[in-house]
């Protein structure tokens, strides 16, 4: 059933986002900058043309998918903070499938499926550690992030390295196996993300499974007394969130990068922040992902045009998430 | 002299203290007795400043006593040892004592503390090592640290005298092994000799009779007896605690069910390591079986085992016509009123309609093929609210918005609305006022009269006896058939306290 608080939850998130932007511009003004000009430049960069909008939307795709994964896990009380590692696992599996398979849409589909499976499996390792050895999921998932990053580094310099290449890079995905481009650089993955968000929202609000996940997350004891198999539901949530993160990585490979190289990404980490800003609402995740992406793209423009470090975008993201969490904590306290 | 007079306290509609009196001579060990819910713990919390009384007066050594907080009470020389440990396991004995005393900012004079701890240890004939890490100590030793901590916080004189101090001990022996109890009791006597006034809350009558100078017995928030311990024996005490006349008005099932009525629950040789030992009993259709007993004697494990939530249970639990996996789900499932409505029965953040649907939420008409029907949830909730008299501003408000009594009515509505073949209810009136209690108990009686089997696990003997056709007593993880109604309520009271049914 729709949670009545969710109807209201868009407001604090919007307010927090606007407040964060305003705070940054205020800081800029205090520092002697030109806030109006900066805002205009950032806006231009993120939304100034169809092309810029497509770039922003493309940035938002992996954030949205990782955010949906985080929202799914957190709503059911599963503290999967290893979306980054699961995303990397998805990238590795996708490239390992996409490159050797005969080019074509089926290869693309197989690549995405492999990415989702690998993400779920990587999270499954953490779940197995928790069930078998009592290792808290929070710890194992975050430590598995590092292991995934190192493993990826080893693989792109080893078995997955492109033949004849000196750089730590894989071979390139054949053109026929890539995700279709909707409007350069936006690819079919954006549509997949939107469909998954809508599906996730339907599952959460309209199905027995979604209701049981929510109950198990809010009060596992009550869930047990109501005959809800809590351990099973939490496994579903953990594997589902891992699969979404893995899919995010696979889509990025099949739609944007077309190969995998060594080096840092942070969609998994950012996805957690996106989910928190959206207060775990699947449709809100789309908006929050777009906001994060716009800040990223806008800040890059800002850096080019006005020599403002593009880290200011990350600052605004941080302030917005902190503000939403604070608002949530305060209202929880008032209710008590 | 410690004197509490006419203490009243209400929690919402529930009366916890109804004019309780307590008079304790300085430097004595005083037993505070009564059933669960009799008001002992609330009264002790009033004295310790944790609960503000609605009315009544308190005096300590002739001066008016109005502690506003535990810190306040500590300053006045009152210490309390709670039922559960309140120590920081990773810190040393000294650090725990310092922490409790709340010395504020500034340097801690470790040598002075060690001296104080040593002086107290000498006084009590205890060896207390200030350096020892609490987590590495045995339970009995932790208990000593707990007591030392409370006393040091309340202040100890330079000569080791504890005159004028009050120490409240809430069930201090509940966690101890018999040899540890043997060491604790003499120490309490020595403390009294040092001038401390000790209030000992306990269910264990032999201990109380051994160590206490005087006793006060509470029932339903009132003092029913006060006097020297020497005048009493266990039998008379048990009678005082449970009372001799039933007060509830619901009538027990007049017609005892036939022996050939179908079985609804059949338990054989049920054991749970460390809590239940070889339990066998059954519940038939149209019968209410009461499990009497002081909380903590295995009730929780028994109920969880029956519901399939206790993985380490062994033995046979048969719910005829209901596969084990379906005890809590499906249309024929057991109707459950769990012990703790906020932790085990409700999701406080979710709307009342969601809470009323829990358990039925996967079956028609609320759901079909895994999809929920919002309008059906609303209709279902409205129907239950109407039928069971749940007072609520609506069914879309979170369950947290309801009063305790109405939350419990909602839980009962969910458990009983389908006339389940078997109902398991645990302390179903905990924290409810008289009207809500009577309502919930009447619903249970009605479920029985409509042919359901009812297993009622309840700490309130009066309410239990008003509904139960048979009464089994759970004590120390073992089940004893009281023979009710052939036996008297006094016999049940004695069994609940681990005494033989007859003197």
Q: Quickly give the structural class of chain B.
A: alpha/beta
SSE run of chain A: HHHHHHEEHHHHHHH
Q: Per DSSP, what share of the residues of chain B sits in E-state strands of 2 or more residues?
A: 15-25%
Number of strands of chain B: 21
Structural class of chain A: mainly alpha
Instruction: Name the overall outline of chain A.
Output: globular
For the largest sheet of chain A, list the strands in their spatial order: 1-2
How would you characterize the largest beta sheet of chain B?
Answer: 6 strands, mixed
Uncertain residue segments of chain A = 1-8
| Gyration radius over CA of chain B | 25 Å
Estimate the strand proportion of chain A: under 5%
Structure notes:
- The complex is a heterodimer of chains A (336) and B (503).
- With 336 residues, chain A is an all-alpha fold.
- Chain A is built from 13 helices and two strands.
- Chain A has helices at 4-30, 35-47, 50-75, 83-98, 105-133, 137-156, 189-206, 208-218, 220-225, 230-257, 267-277, 282-306, 311-335; strands at residues 181-183, 186-187.
- In chain A, strands 1-2 form a two-stranded antiparallel sheet.
- In chain A, strand 1 and strand 2 (186-187) form a beta hairpin.
- In chain A, 52% of the residues are buried.
- By secondary structure, chain B is α/β, with parallel strands linked by helices.
- Chain B has helices at 40-47, 70-75, 93-101, 110-124, 139-154, 178-193, 205-211, 234-242, 299-306, 341-345, 352-357, 374-388, 404-416, 434-449, 461-467, 489-496; strands at residues 2-11, 14-24, 29-34, 55-60, 63-64, 78-81, 166-170, 197-201, 214-219, 222-228, 263-272, 276-284, 288-292, 314-318, 335-337, 367-368, 371-372, 422-426, 453-457, 470-475, 478-481.
- Chain B is globular.
- The A-B interface holds A 1-5, 206-209, 211-212, 214-215, 218-219, 221-222, 224-227, 335 and B 307, 309, 326-330, 333, 336, 338, 343-351, 353-354, 358-359, 361-362, 367, 370-372, 374, 377, 396, 398, 400.
């Amino acid at each position: 059933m729709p949670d009545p608080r969710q109807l209201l939850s868009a407001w604090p998130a919007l307010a927090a986002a606007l407040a964060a932007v305003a705070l940054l511009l205020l800081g800029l003004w205090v520092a002697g900058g030109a806030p109006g000009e900066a805002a205009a430049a950032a806006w231009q960069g993120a939304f100034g043309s169809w092309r810029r909008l497509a770039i922003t939307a493309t940035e938002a795709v992996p954030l949205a998918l990782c955010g949906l994964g985080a929202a799914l896990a957190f709503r059911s009380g599963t503290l999967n903070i290893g979306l980054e590692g699961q995303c990397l696992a998805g990238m590795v599996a996708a490239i390992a499938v996409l490159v050797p398979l005969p080019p074509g849409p089926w290869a693309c589909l197989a690549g995405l499926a492999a990415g989702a499976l690998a993400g779920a499996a990587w999270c499954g390792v953490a779940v197995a550690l928790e069930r078998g050895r009592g290792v808290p999921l929070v710890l194992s998932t975050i430590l598995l992030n590092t292991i995934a990053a190192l493993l990826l580094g080893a693989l792109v310099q080893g078995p997955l390295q492109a033949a004849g290449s000196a750089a730590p890079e894989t071979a390139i995905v054949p053109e026929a196996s890539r995700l279709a481009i909707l409007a350069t650089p936006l690819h079919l993955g954006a549509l997949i993300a939107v469909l998954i968000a809508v599906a996730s929202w339907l599952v959460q609000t309209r199905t027995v499974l979604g209701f049981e996940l929510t109950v198990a997350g809010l009060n596992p004891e009550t869930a047990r007394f109501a005959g809800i198999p809590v351990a099973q539901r939490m496994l579903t949530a953990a594997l589902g969130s891992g699969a979404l993160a893995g899919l995010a990585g696979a889509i990025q490979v099949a739609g944007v990068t077309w190969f995998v190289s060594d080096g840092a990404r942070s969609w998994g980490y950012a996805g957690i922040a996106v989910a928190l800003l959206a207060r775990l609402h699947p449709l809100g995740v789309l908006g929050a992902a777009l906001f994060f992406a716009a800040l990223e793209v806008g800040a890059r423009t800002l850096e080019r045009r006005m020599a403002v470090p593009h880290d200011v975008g990350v600052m605004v993201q941080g302030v917005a998430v902190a503000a939403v969490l604070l608002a949530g904590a305060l209202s929880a306290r008032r209710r008590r | 002299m410690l004197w509490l007079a006419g203490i009243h306290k209400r929690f919402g509609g529930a009366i916890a203290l109804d004019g309780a009196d307590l008079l304790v001579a300085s430097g004595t060990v005083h037993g505070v007795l009564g059933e669960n819910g009799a008001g002992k713990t609330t009264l002790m919390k009033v004295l310790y400043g944790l609960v503000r009384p609605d009315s009544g007066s308190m005096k300590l050594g002739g001066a008016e006593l109005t502690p506003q907080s535990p810190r306040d009470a500590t300053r006045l020389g009152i210490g309390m040892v709670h039922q559960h440990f309140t120590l920081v396991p990773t810190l040393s004995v000294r650090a725990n004592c310092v922490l409790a005393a709340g010395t504020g900012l500034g340097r801690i004079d470790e040598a002075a503390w060690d001296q104080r701890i040593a002086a107290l240890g000498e006084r009590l004939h205890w060896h207390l090592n200030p350096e020892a890490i609490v987590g590495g100590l045995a339970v009995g030793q932790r208990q000593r640290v707990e007591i030392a901590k409370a006393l040091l916080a309340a202040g100890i004189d330079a000569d080791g005298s504890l005159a004028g101090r009050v120490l409240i001990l809430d069930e201090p022996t509940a966690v101890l092994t018999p040899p540890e109890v043997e060491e604790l009791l003499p120490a309490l006597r020595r403390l009294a000799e040092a001038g401390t006034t000790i209030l000992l809350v306990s269910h264990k009558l032999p201990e109380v009779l051994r160590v206490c100078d005087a006793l006060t017995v509470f029932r339903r928030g009132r003092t029913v007896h006060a006097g020297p311990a020497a005048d009493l024996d266990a039998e008379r005490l048990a009678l005082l605690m449970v009372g001799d006349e039933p007060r509830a008005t619901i009538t027990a099932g007049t017609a005892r069910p036939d022996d050939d009525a179908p079985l609804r629950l059949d338990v054989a040789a049920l054991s749970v390591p460390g809590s239940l030992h070889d339990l066998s009993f059954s519940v038939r259709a149209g019968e209410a079986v009461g499990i009497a007993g002081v909380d903590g004697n295995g009730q929780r494990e028994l109920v969880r085992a029956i519901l399939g939530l206790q993985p380490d249970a062994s033995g046979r639990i048969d719910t005829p016509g209901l596969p084990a996996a379906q005890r809590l789900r499906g249309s024929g499932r057991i109707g459950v009123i769990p012990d703790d409505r906020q932790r085990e029965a409700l999701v406080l953040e979710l709307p009342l309609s969601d809470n009323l649907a829990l358990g039925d939420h996967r079956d028609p008409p609320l759901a079909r093929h895994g999809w929920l029907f919002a309008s059906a949830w609303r209709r279902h909730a409205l129907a239950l609210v109407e039928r069971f008299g749940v007072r609520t501003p609506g069914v879309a408000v979170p369950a947290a918005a309801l009063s305790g009594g109405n939350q419990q009515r909602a839980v009962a509505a969910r458990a009983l609305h389908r006339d389940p073949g078997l109902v398991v209810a645990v302390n179903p009136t905990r924290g409810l006022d008289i009207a809500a209690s009577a309502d919930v108990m009447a619903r249970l009686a009605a479920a029985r009269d409509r042919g359901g089997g009812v297993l009622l696990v309840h700490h309130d003997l009066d309410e239990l006896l008003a509904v139960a056709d048979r009464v089994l007593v759970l004590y120390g993880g073992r089940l004893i058939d009281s023979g009710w109604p052939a036996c008297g309520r006094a016999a049940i009271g004695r069994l609940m306290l681990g005494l033989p049914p007859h003197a």
